User: Fold this.
Amino acid sequence: MPKRDLTGAVVVVTGAAGGLGAAVARRFARSGARLALVDIDPSRLADVADALPGSEALVCDLTDPDECESAIAAVVERFGGVDVLINNAGMTHRSAFADTDPAVIRKVMEVNYLGSVNITKAAMPSLLERRGAIAVVTSVAGFAPVLGRTGYAGSKHALHGFFDTLRAELRPDGVDVTIVSPTFVDTDMQQRALGGDGDVTDHPQSRVGKQVTADDVADRMYRAVERRKRWVVIGFIGHLTRVMTAAVPSIYERMMARSLRSELDR
Assistant:
């Protein structure tokens, strides 16, 4: 199958004010893409948009379907349609489930999962018309257990199920769906991680292996969309996890639990 030509493509990036979203926007901009930057934080979003001349900044709460419809309508009015939708927006929590308010789980699910569903639904008519592409940022937590992150892992598993199925539905229409699963990424998202009580936690993050950079993830995502990839796992630990969860899941679980045990200590 020929590569997708992304020169001049209209690319919508959600969570564009964050470290990874901004890196993704910069990478697509280098290909000459026309960018619509979506985020709930107006001041940080403005900073990213100012650094990318010609981009459109759209403040939007992805958990509100009406706001998603309005944002996509603004993109269509400005640029004529949507060629690529990057579902990047997300949040996390770090706490043992026994110590976690169910409202925290609900909030993470609403942002990570339903936010992606809402904006994808709004963009669907244009994506179908233009035989476009969808990419979604999940995580190693989307296919493997990660201690202290039940809500986060649940939301990422849900994204895998949703977008795998959506890919099958859209295949006859020529719309590509790419799932991007990085390991731990060096961004500021962890500084806004929720604790079990719903407040931002000051508990240090535990992780396994070397973090990957936002720029590396963005470049790999760009190439995956260009080459119409179904799924890309980024980072050595991510690839090792994929192999171990398939071949020796109980061994993986014990090793992961030892490495991340401090997430449960409060």
Remarks:
- The chain has one domain: 10-264.
